[in-house]
Amino acid sequence: MTNLFERERYDSDIISSMVHCAIAELDRIVPYVALVRSSAVALLPDLDIKRLLMREDVIPPVPGDEEEEY
User: Fold this and answer.
1) What is the pLDDT of residues 33-43, one digit of tens each?
2) Which of 9, 35, 64, 67 has its Cβ near the most Cβ atoms within 10 Å?
3) For residue 40, is it within any domain?
4) What is the value of pTM for the model shown?
């Protein structure tokens, strides 16, 4: 953070938002990493990363995107 803000002068809302985004991105990438890690070594050269990243069935839902049941 020191490369973004002057020493001891920072906006806590910006820091909080940056941390939140970093955690959200980790939540998104970890399931993909798990799929790659569990793949057989012989199949890794054939792994299509673009197609893998398009899969939405392995990422957690975004809070608030679920349809409400009445």
Assistant:
1) 998 999 999 99
2) 35
3) yes
4) 0.59
SS3 16: helix
Q: Is there a contact between 35 and 52 (Cβ–Cβ < 8 Å)?
A: yes
Give the structural domain span for 21: 12-54
How many folded domains does the chain comprise? Answer: 1
Quote the tokens at residue 55: 């899969």
Alpha-carbon torsion, ordered 19, 20, 26, 27, to 10 deg: 160
Read off the pLDDT of residues 43-61 as tens digits, 9 standing for 90 and up: 999 989 899 888 888 877 7
